[in-house]
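Following up on my earlier thread - several people asked me to post the actual chain instead of describing it. Fair enough. Here it is, all 251 residues.
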Amino acid sequence: MESRYKGICPLISILIVSSDKETADRMAEVLRGEEMTPSTASNREEALRQLDKELPDAVVLNLDPPAGWQPELCGQIRERAIAPLLVVGKVGQELALARSLDVGADAHLFSPYTPQIFLSQLYALLRRVGLARPGVSGQFDIGTLAIDLFSREVRVWGRPVEVTPIEFELLRCLLNNSGRALSYRSLVRQVHGYDCSSHEARKLLKVHIHNLRQKIEPDLQKPAHVLNVRGFGYLFERRRSRRDTLGEPIS
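Reply from S.P.:
Thanks for posting it. Predicted structure:
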């Protein structure tokens, strides 16, 4: 059966974490059929080594028996990467699946499943973060704030605002993951291209986030878009604030 998605997002990289080699090989074969680039890890240590070396576009975690370590791995993945995380489990593993969602997974899938269902779930997650999104212009109008990801233009109250390359990359990452909390560490890795401790990442981001807020927030004391997630990182809120409906301020 010809894929509905093939060619939409070539060169997408997917990390498959599974101690079951046969399952990992089947998943990888399906992904290669979509012109994606799969890699595999058979245990937690190997998965974390690969994540520290290179960030994938998405992660698929198979809850293999006894699955004692996998839910905790979700939190470790989320600290390192902003990539969507799909957890696959079986009937009887509901508690492990629920725990995985609590600590960082984005969606789950019960096996057995068809390749079409597997791909549909994966593509749904990729679309949420701006990948595999055909027909979308990359333009976002969020009340007083307008952003064009392709032309890299930012406007507030219809007026162009100059942002630095780092500020724009932060905005792009946060916007493409609207509503998802992104860790300090994962943001630094995505924007700056290197890894550091969560404490160091927080200090590094603090100035950039402050400057970005000064440029795009209606009220710097009560941010409406770039929000703090205490002790973890930041998230982007796309819902229009009440201030967005009041009209442009009188100058």
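DSSP finds eight helices and twelve strands in the chain. That should answer part of your original question.
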